[in-house]
Design a protein that fits this description.
about 80 residues; two-stranded antiparallel sheet; 1 helix; about 30% strand
């Protein structure tokens, strides 16, 4: 994922916890965001290529925008 319009960042890498769930993100500018901070950034429109949705458990989660390219799915991003 690359910068969009030079102003919005994207997620370029993830850190997973012991259960394999994404716990943190690295952005295209090198910032490291914890999950809640990343969720707020996505919700505010600061991050391109991702959205926030309500899971079946009622919690809010981050997912990549569907574009048919599995290589940029959040779970498939490189680890940092």
């Amino acid at each position: 994922m690359a910068l969009t319009n030079g102003s919005r960042e994207t997620f370029v890498a993830v850190r997973k916890n012991g259960d394999g769930d994404i716990a943190a993100f690295r952005t295209s500018s090198g910032k490291e965001l914890g999950y809640e901070e990343a969720r707020e950034a996505v919700s505010s429109g600061a991050i391109a290529g991702a959205n926030v949705f309500k899971g079946r458990d009622g919690e809010m989660y981050i997912r990549g925008d569907a574009d048919g390219d599995k290589s940029n799915n959040l779970d498939n991003l490189p680890a940092f």
